[in-house]
Design a protein that fits this description.
The protein contains 7 helices and 19 strands. The chain has 306 residues and is α+β, with helices and mostly antiparallel strands.
Length: 306
């Protein structure tokens, strides 16, 4: 039986009081760039940090908690997501600038942070304009592109643990690695303090224009996609291995490996989450068979198969 058809779990009627919004059996597919996937048992949009902290502190430990951003690097499986899904917005998207220091809420779009830095003459954050996601997601995976990574500019982050306790995290404690952050998966990032440097606005704008042109030229930015599907293996490029394995244009149901950039999977319009995930696994199988390299998913996959 799918998550969409099953009755609400018993805990769903005993959720803590909140000031934000709670939706039961909430559709999630429309919140992702792939536009596929089943519902969450419960979707919670907290009003602010205190609302979120109180909710986590009172929520029974056995209830699973999953945090999502704008769904740009996310695949929600067709069976939906058990437990509570949290989506930050509102005050969690605030961005402020003090000199060359930018403080951004976890729900702030990476592009918004880069544009705000441009407006205030802060250089060094241009690479964020090429990452389709939020600061919280960028922290979680040490997102990087176009010569920059979060580890290069992050000075501090704040987060709540599963019990709702607040933590201030120096960059050394984040344990950044390639597309990796060492903070427990159950912790929810609230904000990041980023350090750039003062620079001329025309040079910052020119670099952002270069990034935009490079993305639009090389990537299927107008398709229903989840961005880069697999992390680059040590010393190699995932797209090259996929291409050499003969996967460019490969299809599974309504899912397809992009002809433009073969490290992107596309929903051609009729794909299910299973189509997309199965296609990705077939790509992994063929790459392993032809090159001996085991590709690792960069796209985050959540929920259960239908």
């Amino acid at each position: 039986m799918s998550v969409a058809m099953r009755p609400s779990p018993q805990w769903a009627d005993r959720l803590p009081p909140v000031r934000g919004r709670i939706v039961h059996h909430a559709p999630l597919g429309g919140l992702t760039w792939f536009r596929v996937g089943g519902p969450a048992d419960v979707l919670f949009r907290p009003a602010d940090t205190e609302d979120l902290a109180g909710f986590l502190a009172a929520l029974p430990e056995e209830v699973p908690v999953t945090v999502i951003g704008v769904g740009s690097n996310l695949l929600v499986r067709d069976g939906g997501v058990p437990g509570v899904v949290i989506r930050l917005a509102g005050p969690f998207a605030d961005v402020s600038v003090d000199g060359a220091t930018v403080t951004a809420g976890a729900a702030a779009l990476d592009l918004t942070v880069a544009m705000t830095a441009l407006e205030r003459g802060v250089a060094g954050l241009e690479f964020l304009s090429g990452i389709p996601g939020t600061i919280g997601g960028a922290l979680r995976m040490n997102a990087g592109a176009f010569g920059g990574e979060m580890k290069d500019v992050t000075r501090q982050a704040t987060a709540l643990d599963r019990q709702g306790r607040h933590h201030v995290l120096a960059v050394e404690t984040l344990d950044f690695g390639y597309r990796h952050c060492g903070i427990p998966e159950s912790w929810i990032f609230l904000s990041a303090t980023l350090e750039g440097e003062t620079g001329p606005g025309d040079a910052i704008a020119a670099r952002m224009a270069e990034i935009r042109t490079e993305r639009e030229t090389a990537q299927p930015t107008r398709a229903r996609t989840g961005g880069s599907t697999f992390a680059n293996p040590p010393g190699g490029k995932a797209w090259e291995l996929i291409d050499k394995a003969g996967c460019r244009g490969l299809r599974r149901g309504g899912a397809m490996v992009s002809e433009k950039h073969c490290n992107f999977l596309i929903n051609t319009g009729t794909a299910t989450a299973a189509d997309i995930e199965d296609l990705g696994e077939e790509v992994r199988r063929r790459v392993l068979e032809t090159s001996g390299v085991s590709l690792h998913w960069e796209i985050r996959r959540i929920g259960v198969r239908d």
